[in-house]
Amino acid sequence: MVYCGKPSKGCSNCRERKIRCDQREPGCGQCEKRHQTCPGYRNLVDLMFRDESSHVIKKAKARARKKGNLIVEPSTPSGSEGRLSVTPEPRGKPSIAIVVPATPAPTSPADSDGWGFDDSLLMSPESGSWPITPPAMALYNIPPVCQEQGFAFFFSRFVTANETACHQNFDFVREVWKPSRTKRERQVDSVLASLTAVGLMGMASLQRRSDLMDAARKSYGVALGLTKDALKDPTEAVKDSTMLSILILGVFEMMAESPARVRTVTAFQEHVNGAAALARIRGPAQFQTRAGRRMFSMLCQRVVISCAMKDMPMPQPLKDLWHEMAKTLEPENPTRHLMPLVWQVLQLRHDIKNHIITDPGNIVEKLLAIEHDLEKLTNNMSPSWQYRQFKVTQHHDAVFEGYCHLYPSLHHANIWNCIRTTRILILETIISQISEDFSSFTPRLNSSRYIEEYNTARRKLKRLVYDICASVPQHLGLMDPVDGSIGSQDEEDASARITTVEVRETPSPPTSPSTRSCDSSTSPSEARRHATGLTILDVTKARDEDDEAERYMLLVSATSTVVWPLYLVGMSTACSEEMKHWVVGRLRMVTMETGIKQADALAGLIADEGVGAVDWIDPALEQQQAMGTDPLLLSPDMIQHTGHDGWGNGGGLYGLGLSPLQVPMEYMGDEFGVGEGDLVWV
């Protein structure tokens, strides 16, 4: 099946006129304007491939007859179960050929197996280069056309596609494995079976076809058995092809649609644990090739996800191997410094959750130290990693607030957003820790010092969410890499571009009243309820264990680089109502354009969550808002001082509007203007 590129989604009338089709149901708007009957739309998946099976078979048979190096045992007469044994010439290293049941020639179209293809040709690895096929896995009866479709789908989504997430991008697969072009024997190795399983799983999910799902599971079972057999052989276990098979099987577990998501998470973690153990066996020798380094980097990213799921720190053996691999990276590559900082986050998360660190001041100081290092990393980016900023000259739905970024490549944009998302989690945790301490009965943090840290975190958080939004147009493929122009939304002229103007100074996020999360009619008790975004202690905001597993798998299985950053922005306390609607719209556009259903599911979670921006209803703050300043920032002037040491460092009574608190007996009297039983907001 030959991949023919991305076909047009429009109806035939719009394609003939070469105009943009809005693809409305039941008919498009262009046909409606011309008072024509819209002919409808094509099945895009069927159009992405062209069946050249007969041509390939003809060439293969001609090549085999010319070389005369194949011995084909004739099968039994039609109507009985025959066996086809294909034996290649010896090539120095013994191998076990696959022996599969022969496919009887159908006497009529109704007798066909449903695929209409002879079961005699299949892509297979070069003999002697890949793991030996064990006799136990000799039966692999997936129809060849079915396998070819899965093979092509995998390459289009996980090898050649630019929008593929970096931790699932197998663009190095050709350096590790390639199919044979000359042999007709059906010799199957773990790489071929695993990538076929993932490709068929993706097609089955997209087309809702149970037969493809069955073939995907069958191929997965074969790949799993072959990989286990390879791991038993010390020579085969350390090969790149074995590690590649395990990583691809991990993608299958990510994509698996199972009602019991907890079991899926467990299977994914088992694959990660197996790959991590194999990486330790392979040792520093695996870094001698580019593919080996890429696979180890991919593994480390998955181990980080697994550690977050299990509340564990990064294993020390993998950290030691990473430092060995980092010696091969370019000095200006920020990944050299980013990954160790991520490990610090995992360690701090583990220490807090296991009550190793309990003091709020200690927690906040460690968070501030990591944030300082991350900010320093962005400030010290080399010129080759810098991005350009543009402002559009007219409105575009995909450009938030009119500003967008242009990076040297999508890889650079991914690394920038990885740093930003890590910082957002850190800053949200700082805000949450300070707020929780100030809302407690006996706060332990120094008021003036940590109010300033709180305000600084709020300002940084708002800047980061706007920067992520500005990176989205390039992720969606809308920006011209040369001049920064944006694709037009004009239905009449799809080739038109929206011009942009490069800006030298970073525009400040707006501080308009639209950033507030609730209006003036909100009751005090509702307005003072404190909302939190995603933090390092809670990266899903799930209701229970099953919901947590569901959200984890939605995030790790999405193949678009922009899904996780957008989800984090949509759940942030710095996300306004306007930004939330924009984020939901971009995620749903990703689903429409790429078929990634996880993006739509995450958009629904953001829409249901509501706006998370923290709001303080206080006369002084309302006055700040009326003056056009940020109502979310606090100042020491908002503190009511009592001179009593029982309220924390310096004896400050924190009037931050966080939660209602019953006035204790010792604070009654005219000096404070409150009486017994009164409620104050602290």
Automatic annotation (TrEMBL):
Domain Zn(2)-C6 fungal-type: residue ranges: 10-38
InterPro entries xrefs: DHMBA_Reg_Transcription_Factor, Fun_TF, Zn2-C6_fun-type_DNA-bd_sf, Zn2Cys6_DnaBD
Keyword Hydrolase included in the entry's annotation: no
Residue spans of biased composition, Low complexity class: 513-525
Transmembrane regions listed in the UniProt entry: none
Signal peptide residue numbers: none
Spans annotated as Disordered: 67-94, 481-530
Any one Gene Ontology molecular-function term assigned to this protein's record: zinc ion binding
Pfam families: Fungal_trans_2, Zn_clus
Tree of life domain: Eukaryota
Keywords: Nucleus
PANTHER family named among the record's database cross-references: TRANSCRIPTION FACTOR DBAG-RELATED, ZN(II)2CYS6 TRANSCRIPTION FACTOR (EUROFUNG)-RELATED-RELATED
Record protein name field: Zn(2)-C6 fungal-type domain-containing protein
